Amino acid sequence: MGIQVQFRKEAAELLSSGAVKLVIGYGEGSTPERRRPVFVRTPAETERLVLDGACVANLSTYLISEGLLSDGKNVAVFLKPDGIRSINILAAEAQLNPEQVVIFGFDIENGEARPLAGRKASDFTQVVEAAKAAGLSPELQKEAERLDHISAAERFEYWKEQFSKCIKCYACRQVCPMCYCRRCIVDVNQPQWINTSSHTLGNFEWNIVRAFHLAGRCVACGGCDRSCPVNIPLRLINHRMAKEVLDAFDYYAGESTDQKPVLATFRQDDPETFIL
Ligand code: SF4
Ligand code: SF4
Question: DSSP secondary-structure letter at 274?
Fold first, then answer.
């Protein structure tokens, strides 16, 4: 049985037994190579579910919709390893109860979706360990190293040029499962901490604040990159921050539901190279 048929069948069983109230998965997109999120509430609707190599979005972001899990009922969701790591972080940060999340885990290999065994976040420990062992993205690492080896002035010019394109649409924030604040600092206007105009200073403020908020929390799902309408390489910034926390603290975001946030804890042998 193919993975799509298998997942449709299991989703229908979960819905008809009342084990879950909703299945969040992928459906046909606006073009043949695109997929969009679908929200399935009845067994008959599971026919809309699609699963193939084009299913790349991290659907965990929909689980933090206000009130979705507050009735205590379960929700099933299709997730790749990056999405499973997101669930671990959201649970560790008390944003959801992982017992309410039924995971249809899958990974994409050679353009094909293949199932991952398990249904609860804790079932996927080995999947996350394997992702950690595989290392941070080699493709991003190559570009990060190129930027590391140019001068600080050249690097500043690079990011100035990139951030100058930002139109402050906040699509990067909306798509990110780790950006769950009900009121984002950029939406506060009394006092106004961050300028809302899309000029270079305001754009630097916004993108740097976001990068710091994601330090040790980004799961490299690429949602921000894909949603940015002006193609700023946002994942590259978060990759750089992920490398810092990995090198300094041996910390890989989203390893388990009880992993303490890296910037909210310390060990006595943590490096203190930043203290003069
Ligand atoms: S910052 Fe971007 S790559 Fe990282 S978790 Fe958020 S959407 Fe995904
Ligand atoms: S998605 Fe791109 S353009 Fe929109 S706010 Fe984020 S960085 Fe700026």
Answer: T
CB–CB of 132/255 below 8 Å? yes
- Give the model confidence (pLDDT) of 59-105 as tens digits: 999 999 999 999 999 999 999 999 999 999 999 999 999 999 999 99
Query: How many other C-beta atoms are found inside a 10 Å radius of the C-beta of residue 153?
Result: 8
Full-model pTM: 0.92
Atom number in ligand 1 closest to CA 61: 7
How many helices and strands, by DSSP H and E, does the chain display? Answer: 9, 5
Q: Determine if ligand 2 sits within 6 Å of the CB of residue 231.
A: no
Would you say the CB of residue 176 lies under 6 angstroms from ligand 2? no
Q: Which ligand is the nearest neighbour of the Cα of 238? A: 1
Phi/psi at 79 (5° precision): -140, 140
Q: What is the pLDDT of residues 240-256, one digit of tens each?
A: 999 989 988 889 999 99
Number of the ligand closest to the Cα of 214: 1
Query: Shortest CA distance to 206 belongs to which of 176, 230, 185, 175?
Result: 185
